[in-house]
Amino acid sequence: MKIICKRISLILAMTALVPAFAAVPEPQSKQAKEVRALVDKGAALVESKGKDAFGEFRKKGSVWFKGDLYIFIDDFNGKVIVYPPDSKLEGQNIINMKDPNGTAVVATFIEALKTQNSAWVEYLWPKPGSDKPVKKFTYVRKAKAPTGETLIVGSGFYSE
Questions:
Q1: Are 84 and 90 contacting, i.e. CB atoms less than 8 angstroms apart?
Q2: Residues of the chain with pLDDT under 70
């Protein structure tokens, strides 16, 4: 009995070390369908052109970056590769950055994509030009660049 209790305690302790997984079912909206299509197209472009596609994602007013809709790219270590609304974030590792609810946003993307090719994640994030975080649904998917590196390509929409 003591051995069983020790094993259960060990399993519970290990479970507490696993980061919270905040993936959600796909939202059923026109915006969600548009975001999914945009990310799928963006991932295909990354898979065919690699880094040469990054400049396209940064062009304001393009299909990739209009208003508060934009493609972003992160690596699986938490480094921001492309972030059109604020290029100062590019090159920074934000794996530990948490939203006001404690969701480690990029860590959640990575965790979700460890077991699947794409996922929807819900968290709080400020709209471009604002400091106030609001609910955001983001679709992320894996994209394998011609160099062999697997990247995270994503986009999302704000629920308000």
A1: no
A2: 1-23, 25, 160
